[in-house]
Amino acid sequence: MNTLFDKIWDSHTVRTTEGGACALYIDRQYIHEVTSPQAFSGLKNRNTSVFRPKQITACPDHNTPTVNQDQPSKDSQARMQQEQLIQNCRDFGIEIFGVGTPKNGIVHVMGPETGLTQPGMTIVCGDSHTSTHGAMGCVAFGIGTSEVEMVMASQCVLQSKPKTMRINVDGTLGKGVCSKDIILYIISKLGTGGGTGYFVEFAGSAIKSLSMEARMTICNMSIEMGARGGMITPDDVTFDYLKGREYAPKGKAWDMAVEKWKKLSKCENAIFDREEHFNAKDIRPMVTYGTNPGMGIAVDSSIPTLESIDEKSRPSVEKALKYMGFKAGEKMAGKKIDYVFLGSCTNGRIEDLRTFASVVKGKHKHPDVVAWIVPGSAQVARQAEQEGIVKTLNDAGFEMRQTGCSACLAMNGDTIPEGKYCLSTSNRNFEGRQGQGARTILCGPLLAALGAVNGVITIPTTD
C-alpha cells in the first residue's frame, strides 16, 4: 500500500517529464515580504497574471519589528518590503493579513490556526520551514524565489519526487520532555544529513500522543536533518484542532471532508524506502552545544569528547566549539546565558507560552538576562492576554513583544549581540544566525523558562 506521502503526491501530479520530474499541483501557497518581491517582478516583466489568486495567502512576518507595529518600520528595507507586498497583493488580487491586523502572524503559525492548512493538501512557501504544515497531514515544503513565481503563474511547481522515510518514536515520554526535545534527539542521532533525499513521516505511540501544536514543532525541524519535509498522519487530534476554524469546512462539508481525510489516512501496510526506530524513554530535555541542530545532547550530560566523535566530524566540531567558547567534555548545565528567546515558527504557539508561563509564575526574571517573548501570531497574543499569561509574564518581570519571526533570523531589529549566549526556542543555531558573532543554544520552552529565571542552563527537577 502507498504511504500517505505517495497518495498525496501522486494525486497532485499533473504530469511527469521525460527526466522524471513531476509537475505538482499546489493547493495552497503562502507568501511573505522577503521572498516574494522578485517573483512579483518576474510576473510583471512577463506581463503574466497570477493564475489562481484565491489559493495564495500573504502574511508579512520575517522582517517585521516586534515593537511599535502601529508606526512605520524604522528600517528602510523592512518598510519597503512591507509596502511592496501590500501593493503587489493589491495589484494581483491576493488576500493579505498585514502587520497589526487580527490574522497577521508567522505564516507557519497563521496557516494552521486559521484553518487554511488542511489534511491532504500540497502547500509551498518561499521559506524552508514550510514543512511545519506537514503536521496536519500535508505535503508541505519550501521553494526558491523562481519557484514562487512559477506557482503564482501556473499553480504548479516542477519537483523531483523524494524517497520516503518513516521515523517511529514509541513509548511514553518522560517528565519535562517536549516535542522540541524529540526532534533535537532524532537529529542528534541521524545527523543533519540523515534525511537528505527523503520526505519523512513521523509515527509511533509517542508521536500520536502529542498535541497538534507539538506535532508542528516536530515537522518544522524535519528539514534540519536534511529532509525535504516532514508529515504526520491526520487523526482525531488533527480534526479536533481544525474543527470550527475560520477557513475550515462547515456543516455537511465538514463531515464530508473528515470522511475523505480518514480514507487518506489508511496506510497501515505502507512500505517506506527507509525506517528508523527510537524509544521515547531514551529522550531527555535537550540543548545544543555547537553550530548545527545535530550537535545536541541531553541537558544533564556533557559535550562529547573528540575521541568519541568519528574522525570526519572532528574538524567541524572543533570549529563549532571554538565559535561557541565551549570545550569538549564540559557540562552544559550551569553555563551562563545572556539572552532568552521564546518564539518563532518552531515554538511561538500558545502551548509554548503556557509552558513558559507555568515555569516563571511566582518567580522573577534573572537580572542579567534579556528575554524576548514573541507570540507567533496576533491570535496567540490575544489568547495569551485572555488566559492571563501576559499578566503572569509581567508579574515575573517579562514583557511580551508583538508578533513576528523576531530573533530567529536577526533581520528585524531583534538581534543577539556578538559573543552573547542566547537560549533559543528557534530552529537553527548556525554561526551568525541570530546576529553576527551571536552564540545560539537551541532548547524547548521549559529549559528557556528555567534559564530566564536562573540565568544559567538548568536541569529540570523531576518532582
Brief digest:
32% of the residues lie in helices and 16% in strands. The chain has 16 helices and 18 strands.
Q: Notable features of this structure?
A:
Aconitase, domain 3; Aconitase, Domain 2; 463 residues; 16 helices; alpha/beta; 16% strand; 3 domains
Q: Can you put this structure into words, describing what you see?
A:
The chain is α/β, with parallel strands linked by helices. It has three domains: 4-159, 2-Layer Sandwich (Aconitase, domain 3); 163-245 and 264-282, Aconitase, Domain 2 (3-Layer(aba) Sandwich); 290-454, Aconitase, domain 3 (2-Layer Sandwich), CATH 3.30.499. Helix content is 32%, strand content 16%. The chain has 16 helices and 18 strands. It has helices at residues 4-11, 37-45, 76-92, 107-114, 145-154, 179-190, 205-208, 212-220, 236-242, 252-264, 314-324, 344-347, 350-360, 378-386, 389-395, 445-454, and strands spanning 13-16, 22-25, 28-31, 56-58, 95-96, 122-125, 139-142, 156-159, 163-170, 198-203, 229-231, 274-279, 286-288, 296-298, 339-342, 370-373, 421-424, 439-442. The strands form five sheets. A five-stranded parallel sheet has the order 5-4-3-6-7. The chain has a four-stranded parallel sheet with strand order 11-10-9-12. α2 (37-45) links the parallel β3 (28-31) and β4 (56-58). α2 packs across α5 (145-154). The termini are far apart. The model has no long low-confidence stretch (mean pLDDT 96).
